[in-house]
What does this fold into?
Amino acid sequence: MLDQAQRILKDVFGYDAFRGNQGAIIEQVAGGGDALVLMPTGGGKSLCYQVPALLRDGLAVVVSPLIALMDDQVATLDELGVAAVALNSTLSADEQREIAERIRRNEIKLLYLAPERLVQPRMLAFLQRLQIALFAIDEAHCVSQWGHDFRPEYLQLGQLAELFPGVPRIALTATADMRTREEIVQRLHLEHAERFLSSFDRPNIFYRIVPKEQPRKQLLGFLAERRGDAGIVYCMSRKKVDDLAAFLTEQGFPALPYHAGLPNELRAYHQKRFLNEEGLIMVATIAFGMGIDKPNVRFVAHLDLPKSLEAYYQETGRAGRDGLPADAWMAYGLQDVIFLKQMLNNSEGDERHKRIEQHKLDAMLALCEETRCRRQVLLAYFDEDLPQPCGHCDNCVDDVQTWDATEPARQALSAIYRSGQRYGVGHLVDILLGRDNDKVLGLGHQHLSVFGVGKSLAEGDWRSLFRQLVARGLVDVDLEGFGGLRLSDSCRPLLRGEVSLALRRDLKPQQAAKGQKSAASQLVRIEERDTWEALRALRRRLAEEHGVPPYVIFPDATLLEMLRSQPASLADMARVSGVGARKLERYGAAFLEVLQGTSEPARSPIDLRHELVTLARAGMTPAQIARQLDCSEKNVYALLAEAIGQQQLSLEQALDLPEDLLGEIQEAFLDGEGELPPVAEIAPQFATRVPEAVLYCVRAALQAEFEL
Ligand code: ADP
Ligand code: ZN
It folds into this structure.
């Protein structure tokens, strides 16, 4: 049977080998047994039921909680030439009847359903008259009442065991914890299911956590290395989401907001754009997440601290589902800690519940202040042992230092105590540094014995120290809202000199920025850029034609392999991972042409402009773009100016001008009142220095900026 499974894997899906447990799981289910599958996001869960569905006779029924997920899966299967449909409320009665007919005629292999629909008596009766190959229950953790994805309808899926004896059932989830696992087994009656546990490590994700100083600037620094990549930026509040999305767009990083306060249609529209377009950034509250199956999310950035490691793991896990390099980046500071502690304090719920939440937050804070390998710590929290440091997180590659902070910590505690345990970090640092500003003098704090004792450390060091004292629970924050610090009981041994304290030495921002080179930017080498963009352009065009997201045509990994292995014939093409029989037939020739550089597709002006914008955003110069698009440089400049004028591109994306020269040109345009002068008027003074075409672009940018 495994032989046959292998053949399906290659013929239909185009893959050469099963990953991890896939082979064993498929054998179990195809052989008629039940399975419980725990696999991280991106691990390849879908194949675990799709291959058995093709191996067994009859209809495979897949339960999935979200319409968006189902549509995506059906589109993907459709592209592979597998007959799959989703029955959902968006279909008309006629369409539904037709699907039922096709199912009766055995024309459908996989049927995707929402749980509430599956358990309708009519639906169950309909299915009982058919031969059922298997039931797959995706996102099976939705059955858990303790998780935040709880779906009451999932509880009713337990009855499948009785109603369909002998039909194998496979439950799948990316949620790791023990309690959820046991709940799934119990509620779905999977007592006899074989359990398949995978490692929850996501080796392709690079983790980095930096101290928060100027978050927007830091974020821009992080994004600068990632132009043209799709990513998610998480923030706590709706307002922050809106503001940040606008700010990023202004800065030339196209970004969309997503939060529960937006009208439903707008949210759905933004989600759709995120899936279908390349290189968009989604700025979101945690309302955005489940149902995001976009495989080529290249980074997840947190500007606010998640409240637990579970949340952090899940949110960062949305990066790099396709297995290609991806980044998880977070900026974290004292304000985050104070804010989350206040939230916790003000939350409803009993003491026990609060204590649990407090422990979760503490674990999250510990990860932030960690000096050992982040991945080891993260996995250990989920009871998984990674024997060696991973070599693929900031702590591993930056060689983080600790320093003996015993003495300064005692000075800091003393400053808190002597000033009456009511002031925030700013004031405490002023005291330690001996700053006699109005507040200090007004309170007479220049007379405290700790006044000025801390001059050997810089302000930033003190702030970092206070943050770590709070994160470690040595100092409490006044939770009424003023951020005043108090000593906690656990700091006594330190005060009494019984223990010492080693703290993390924060990297200077420049140092940290150096380490921000994108994992993904190393994917495509400069000299491969042109071909890469051409492959992507073709994929985008095909995706638009077929009305599916680009990754459904081919995932990035497949395009990348084409780029590397340079197939020269359809036979070569068939060997590329991800190229199955159907896709070879449909798309093989077109991609071959691009690779052989013979492609001269007819392009509409709109296509041309679209491509040009993409290439410019990807960092190509006008000359490179001209070569790539096979048109004159003059033409490219004209189109660039147009795109800038319509704010599809920023000037920085379009041109690489020295800053002072740019300043001079801008001044020349802005010299005077009202309308900008025409290019011809200022052209002579720059004649020897820049092509006239550049002036058009600068003018367009000014016009767009000032709406002149
Ligand atoms: P999950 O549902 O576990 O998050 P998916 O089923 O969406 O993961 O798979 C993630 C990606 O890995 C998809 O692009 C899928 O096509 C790919 N994939 C799955 N199994 C294999 C395999 N055996 N070889 C190569 N790619 C695979
Ligand atoms: Zn590591």
Remarks:
- DSSP finds 35 helices and 17 strands in the chain.
- The chain has five domains: 2-197, 205-398, 402-506, 524-597, 605-707.
- The radius of gyration is 29 Å.
